[in-house]
Amino acid sequence: MLVLLLALVFAAVELLPGDAASASSERGDSAADVEARRHLLGLDRPVWERFADWMTALPTGDLGTSARGQKVTDLLADPLPNTLLLGGTAFLLTVLASLALGCWAACRPGRLTDRIVSHAATAAFAVPEFVVSVGLLLVLALWSGWLPAVTLTGADGAPGSWTMLVMPVLALVIPQAGWNTRIVRGALADQARTPHVEAAHLDGLPVRRVVLRHALPGAVPAIATGIATSTGMLLGGAVVVETLFNYPGVGSVLASAVGGRDTPLIAGVVACAGAAISLVLLAADLLRDRILGARP
Amino acid sequence: MNRRQVLWAGGAMGAAALLAACSSEDGGTTDGEPGGDTGPKSGGTLRIGALGRAGAITRDPHGTQANESDYLVIALVFDTLAVPGAKTNTVPRLAASWEHSADLKTWRFRLAGGAAFHDGTPVTADDVVWSLRRLRATPSGAARLPGVKGPESITADGADTVVVVSDHANADFPLMTRLTTFVMKKDTPDGALDKAPGTGPFRLDWYRGGNARLVRNDKWYGGTVHLDAIEVTMFETPQAMANALLAGQIDVASNAGAVAARTAATRKDIRVLRRPDDMAMPIVMRAAAGSPFADPRVREAMRLVVDRGAMVKQVLSGYGTVANDIMGTGDPAYAKDVPQRGRDLDRARRLLAEADFDLSRTYSLVTTEDIAGLAESATLFANQAREAGIKVEVVKQESGAFWNKTWKTGDFYTTYWGTNDSVAFFASKTMVSEAGQNETGWNDPAFDAAYRKASATADEKERAAVLKELQRIEYERSGYLLWGMADGIDLAATKVKGLPTLPGYGRVQLENAWLA
User: How far is residue B370 from each of residues B57, B164, B304, B485, measured CA to CA in Å?
Assistant: First the structure.
C-alpha cells in the first residue's frame, strides 16, 4: 500500500507544472543553468528510475537528498517529533473525549442530552480545522489573551511552552472528537440491541452499568477502527493547523516542498506519515482480533 | 507566495535609499516619533518575526537567501563593505572609505579601523578578498559583482586595502557592494558556515530551524548597539506573524504587507511603519520588432491609458505612491522635474490610430502570483484599458513557467523588482540594449550612449545631468509602464524605537533599534 502511495506521490509531482530545477532557479539564470541543475538533480532521468533509486534506499533508513542538497532525514529531524507530539496528544484527547461523550449520551438514550451531544458532534465534525483554528485564535488569544497566538520555538527546536500546544491540539481534536463521538454512540446503540445487553437491561441493572460493563466491550472493535481512521485526518489537519499557529512541524516542510517540487522531501514526509498511520491501523486490527477472537 | 526573485534583486545590489520626498522623517534610522528627546535606552531583547519557509532554509551568506528570516540573521551577524544610506544611497560599513582610478575601473576599499571578528581576530584585507572571491564564484556572482571577471580582479594591497578591478567604467560600483558582500574569515570551510564568526553588530547565540537568538557584539567597530539581544522567529505566513504581534509574542513583524497593516491599523499599541519605494511592479511592453508594442507611440498610449491613482489605491490598498514610468524612484538623482504623466484617453486613442494599432485583437497580459498585488495589478489594468477600447485578457502563469517562458521574451507581462534606489542600476541591468535582463527587448542608441556616459563620469554634477537625460529618454520611449511604487510595511509595538525606514533590504539594519 505504502509503495503504491509513494509511487503516486512521485507521479503527482511529475504532473505539476515546473520541476525542482525551475522552481529553485533565480531570476537571471539562463536556460542552460536550469538544464545543468536539472542534470545535477538527476531530473533528466525517467521518473520511474528516480523512484526505484529512492525506494531501494528506503529500507536502510535513507530518505534521499532534497533538491537543495540536504539530507531529508536531517530536514525532518526537528519537525517530525513536533508533529508526532501534536498528533499524538490530539489522538489521545480525541479518544478520551469521544468515549466520554459517547457513553454519556448512551446512558441517556433518546433524551435531550443524547440529542444535543449527537447534533453538537455532527456540527463539530462538519466544521473544518481552519474555521475552528480561527475561532479559537480570536477567542482564546486575541480577545482574551489567555493563550499565546502562535508557537515560538526555543534553542532545542521544540515549542517554547506547553500552552502553545493547547490551541493547535484543540483545533485538531474538536472535529475529530465530533466524528468519533458519533461512532461511539452508534456502536453502543448497536450493542444495546444485542441479546445479552437487553437481558442485562431487563435484569434491572442501572443504565450506566449496562453501558459501561455490557455494551462498551462489544463496541470496542468498531470504535477502534473508527478512531484509527482518524489518524490520517489528524495528520492531514495538522498541515493546516501548523501553518495557522506557526507550529514547527512537518506541515510547513511539506508545504514548501510541494512549492519547490522537491519530490524526495515530499516522499519523505509521506513515508513518515504513512508509517504512523499504518502503525495505528495495525494496532486497531490487533485489538479487534483479540476481542473478536481472531475471527475474520 | 514566492519571493526569490525579489530577494535576488535585493541581494544583487542591496537595499534602496530613502526617497527625498520622505524628508518629514528625520533620517535613515529613526521613527519620527514625537517626544523622542530622551535618547536611546540600552538593554532589552527585541523579538522580531520574519517570513520564511522551512524547506528553503540556508545559512550561506553568499548563497541565495530565499527566506527573509535567514537574510536577517546573516545581515546582523556579518558585515558588508557598504550599506544603504538615507542621504546618499551608499554609505560605508566594513569599508570605511573608497576611491577610484581616473577611468573608474579600479576601486580601492579601505577597511574600517578596529574591525574584528566575533572571536577577536582583526579583519584583514585577505579575509575580504577571500570572501569577495567566494561570492564571485557563486552562480549569481557575475550579477552581484558586475564587471569583475574572476579571482585575479580581487586583490589585497597591504593589510587594510582591497582592490577590485572592473572590466568597464562603473561609477556606481560601491552600490553593488551593499548587503551582498558579507565578509567571513579567510578559508572558512563550507561545512562550518553555520558557526562562522562574523564582524557584525550581533553574534549568533543559537540557530535552529529558521529561528535564532543573537546577542550584542560589545566590540563592534560601527558604533553603539543598544539592544542586548535579538530573537528572530520565522513565520510561514504574514497572517500568523501579524497574530503573534497582536498577541504580544513578538515586537516587530518585518515586511508584513498591506493586509496585515489594515488589520493592525485599528490598534493603538501597534505602529504601521511605511518604507516608501520598496517595490516596483511595472508592466512590460516588448519594444523589439515583431511585437504589437514595437511602435513607441503605442507604448506611450498604454502609459496614458492607466489610471495610476486607482492602481495605487486598489492594488496596493493605498500603501504606495504614483510613479512616472521611470525605474529607480528612490534614487537621490531621480528626475523629479519630469512632468507626472496622467490619464489621457483621447490622446491615447489618437496615438493608437496614428500607429495603426489593431483594436480588434485581444492582447494577453501575462502575470504570476509571486507577490501580493501583482496579478491584481494586471486585472485592474485590463479593465482600465477596456475603457480606451483596447481588449486585454489576463493570463496567470505558475511561477516557474512564468520566469522560464514569459520573462524576457513575452510581448506583454508584469514583473517586479525589490530594489529601487538607483536609476543607473535599472539602466545597466534591464534597459541597455545588451543587458542580460533586458526585459523589454529595448534597443535605443541614445539611451545606451547616455548610460555609458553616466557610468564613465566621475564628477557628481556632470553625472547628474547625464542621468537626467537618461531618465527623460526612458520616460519618453522605454518599454516600461511603471504606474506606482509599493511601500514596504513593517508592524511594530509602540515601545520599539529606531527602526529602519529605508526601503528594500534597508529593513534589516536593526543596529540602531532600542526599546523604550
Answer: 19, 35, 27, 17
CB contact under 8 A, A255 and B236: yes
- Cα B8 to Cα B498: distance, rounded to the nearest angstrom: 27
The whole-angstrom separation of Cα B233 and Cα B237 is 12
Q: Which helix (H) or strand (E) element contains residue A245?
A: none
B266-290 burial: b if 16+ Cβ within 10 Å, else e: eeeebbbbbbbbbbbbbbbbbbbee
- Candidate from B343-352, B469-478, B498-507 with smallest mean pLDDT: B498-507
Residue with cell 513583524: B253
Report how far residue B503's alpha carbon sits from residue B407's, in angstroms, rounded to the nearest whole number: 25
Q: Do B53 and A252 touch (CB under 8 A)?
A: yes
φ/ψ of residue B258, rounded to 5 = -70, -35
Q: Given this model, what pLDDT does residue B314 score? A: 94
Cell 526555543 sits at which residue?
Answer: A154
CB proximity B45 to A under 8 Å: no
List, for residues B37-90, the tens digit of each pLDDT value.
578 889 999 999 999 988 788 899 998 888 899 999 999 999 999 998 888 888
| CB-CB contact of B49 with B202 (8 Å) | no
The tens digit of pLDDT for each residue in A102-112 reads 988 888 888 88
B436 vs A: CB within 8 A: yes
C-alpha cell at B369: 502570483
pLDDT number for residue B265: 84
Would the CB atoms of B8 and A27 count as touching at under 8 Å? yes
What residue of A is the nearest CA neighbor of B10? A27
Taking the CA of residue A150 and the nearest CA in chain B, the distance in Å comes to: 6
Residue of chain A whose alpha carbon sits nearest to that of B233: A152
Q: At what angle do helices A263-292 and A216-244 cross, to 10 degrees?
A: 170
Most A CBs within 10 A among B234, B243, B250, hence the mutation to make, goes to B243
Q: Mean pLDDT score of chain A, rounded to an integer?
A: 85
Q: What pLDDT is attached to residue A293?
A: 67
Mean pLDDT of chain B: 88
CB < 8 Å to B58, chain A? 68
**CA torsion sign, B310 to B316 to B317 to B319?**
negative
**Phi-psi bin for B328: left (phi > 0), alpha (psi -120 to 50), beta?**
left
Q: How far is B85 from chain A (nearest CA, A)?
A: 26
Name the residue of chain A whose CA is nearest to B205's CA: A155
Can you spell out the DSSP letters for B159-222?
Answer: SSEEEEE-SS--TTHHHHTBTT-----TT--GGGGGG----SSEEEEEEETTEEEEEE-TT-TT
Long-range contacts of B358-363 (CB under 8 A, 24+ apart): B358/B292, B359/B389, B359/B390, B359/B391, B361/B292, B361/B391, B362/B391, B362/B392, B362/B393, B363/B292, B363/B390, B363/B391, B363/B392, B363/B393, B363/B411, B363/B412
User: Are the C-beta atoms of residues B117 and B197 closer than 8 Å to each other?
Assistant: yes
Whether B2 shows a pLDDT value over 50: the answer reads no
Instruction: Tell me if A29 and B139 make a contact (CB, 8 A cut-off).
Output: yes
Higher pLDDT, B256 or B9: B256
* Euclidean distance between CA atoms A125 and A225, whole angstroms: 17
Percent helix, strand, coil in chain A, to 5, is: 75, 0, 25
Q: How far apart are CA A119 and CA A105, in angstroms?
A: 11
Report residue B188 as a C-alpha cell: 572558512
Nearest residue on chain B to A157, alpha-carbon basis: B208
b/e for B390-421, b at 16 or more Cβ within 10 A?
bebebeebbbbebbbebbbebbbbbbbbbbbb
- Which residues of A are less than 8 Å from B4 in CB distance? 26-27
A229: left (phi over 0), alpha (psi -120 to 50) or beta: alpha
Rounded-to-integer distance, Cα B127 and Cα B115, Å: 12
